[in-house]
């Protein structure tokens, strides 16, 4: 029995939709963290291969943790450079900037060196921390989300915008500056 082209197109659309729904369901495994929640503690390797533990910094610095899909991609590079360009302002406000994605330590090292990024990049190859923060996949990529964590370890600000990388740095800095002025 031969299938006509309409039936084949229908099957392709059905298989594609089925795949998308399965990816979406898989991405929904972590509990989404919200303002007021305690930030999870974690340890990952930085771009120099050294262990970075959030417990070493909570209570000492405001943490700006931003999750991004891929080193060297267009939006991610704009986002990283925006954090770099505002780095002194974050530091003066008592904040520490940390970027996280599933890239390797070597990839992060190359990315940091290429764009002279003065902040910590952490490798999360199994998306363990992504899942702890409940970050969902978008367009077959890990999500882009920023969290500001206060000195008590509470999430005080979140920002999610997949295609506006620069906004993450700008808006997080505005929030920290306004909170400090109060």
Automatic annotation (TrEMBL):
Pfam families: AhpC-TSA. Keywords: Antioxidant, Disulfide bond, Oxidoreductase, Peroxidase, Redox-active center, Signal. The keyword Signal applies. Residues 1-27 form the signal peptide. Residues 33-181 form the Thioredoxin domain. CDD domains: PRX_BCP. It catalyses: a hydroperoxide + [thioredoxin]-dithiol = an alcohol + [thioredoxin]-disulfide + H2O. Its EC number is 1.11.1.24. InterPro entries: AhpC/TSA, Peroxiredoxin_AhpC-typ, Peroxiredoxin_BCP/PrxQ, Thioredoxin-like_sf, Thioredoxin_domain. PANTHER family: AHPC_TSA FAMILY PROTEIN (PTHR42801:SF4), THIOREDOXIN-DEPENDENT PEROXIDE REDUCTASE (PTHR42801). Monomer. Thiol-specific peroxidase that catalyzes the reduction of hydrogen peroxide and organic hydroperoxides to water and alcohols, respectively. Plays a role in cell protection against oxidative stress by detoxifying peroxides and as sensor of hydrogen peroxide-mediated signaling events. Belongs to the peroxiredoxin family. BCP/PrxQ subfamily. This is thioredoxin-dependent peroxiredoxin.
């Amino acid at each position: 029995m031969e299938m006509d082209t309409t039936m084949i197109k229908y099957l392709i659309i059905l298989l594609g939709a089925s795949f998308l729904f399965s990816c979406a369901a898989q991405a929904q495994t972590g509990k989404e963290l919200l303002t007021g929640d305690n930030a999870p503690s974690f340890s990952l390797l930085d771009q120099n291969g050294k262990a970075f533990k959030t417990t070493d910094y909570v209570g000492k610095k405001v943490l700006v943790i931003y999750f991004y899909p891929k080193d060297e991609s267009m939006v991610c590079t704009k986002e990283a450079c925006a954090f770099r360009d505002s780095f002194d302002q974050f530091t003066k406000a008592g904040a520490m900037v940390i970027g996280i994605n599933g890239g390797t330590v070597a990839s992060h090292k190359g990315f940091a060196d290429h764009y002279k990024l003065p902040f910590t990049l952490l490798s999360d190859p199994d998306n363990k921390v992504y899942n702890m923060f409940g970050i969902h996949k978008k367009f077959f990529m890990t999500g882009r989300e920023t969290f500001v964590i206060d000195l008590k370890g509470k999430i005080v600000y979140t920002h999610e915008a997949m295609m506006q990388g620069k906004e993450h740095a700008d808006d997080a800095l505005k929030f920290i500056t306004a909170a400090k002025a109060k």
